[in-house]
Amino acid sequence: MRDAAAILLAAGSGSRMQGLVEDKILALIGDRPVFDYSLTAFARAGIVGRLVVVYRDPAQRKQLAAIFAQSDARHLPARWVRGGTERQHSVSRALAALPASVDWVFIHDCARPLVRTDDLAAVDRAMRRDGAACLAHPVTDTIKRVTARRTKPVRSRLRTVDRSRLWAMETPQAFSRPLIVDAYAEVDRRELRITDDTSALELVTRHPVTLVTSTGPDLKITRPADLAYAGFLVQRSQT
């Protein structure tokens, strides 16, 4: 799919890893770096013709490039973009680096290494049909709204939120290029703060997003226990 590109976000600080690993994107799950899993998933899905890798600093770029050179995705053209201070700045820089030939864009957080190729294909179909799509899953926990700010512990009156309309967003999130470029340009112009890419559409356009239910755990590596759990899931899938 030479008209589609994947932006792979690898520049996060990993501040909640409590010093267990220096860089969670370079940490190992089994015998492979976290970064390699996203590369492999997109390469095997066959849905993009190029990559844009967003890195944190020159030292990390060197290590990511070495992983890329040995990966299943090494045949794909890749551009390397240094990330910004916030996620949204990194995405804006990556969008600006896309060649003119790209019509469709996947934006994926490499801290979600277990994304499945079948799910990538499903997001691709929904994006091309509807213009915007996102991997997600329905919220199954009981969710409470509190009046107090988050503290440890929280003491507050509680209000139950209707979970029947709640979805937890995952990545990749995928869009027609003009749609997401225009949305991010408006976010930047208005100096808005967002935490995911569908939020850009939510704040500046009424274009709907198709939610594609993930068929397997699309775990985000955030805390030390997540690495161990990801390793367990990978080992289980191989037995």
Verbal overview:
The protein is globular. Helix 3 (87-96) packs across helix 5 and helix 5 packs across helix 6 (197-204). The strands form three sheets. Strands 5-4-1-6-10-7-11 form a seven-stranded mixed beta sheet, sandwiched between helices. A two-stranded antiparallel ribbon has the order 2-3. The protein has a two-stranded antiparallel sheet with strand order 8-9. The protein is of the alpha/beta class and 239 residues long. 36% of the residues are buried. It contains seven helices and eleven strands. Helix 2 links the parallel strand 4 and strand 5. The model has no long low-confidence stretch (mean pLDDT 92).
Topology:
Blueprint: E1 4-9, E2 28-29, E3 32-33, H1 34-45, E4 50-55, H2 58-69, E5 78-82, H3 87-96, E6 104-109, H4 117-130, E7 132-138, E8 143-146, E9 158-161, E10 167-176, H5 177-189, H6 197-204, E11 210-213, H7 224-237
Helix pairs in contact: 1-4, 3-5, 5-6
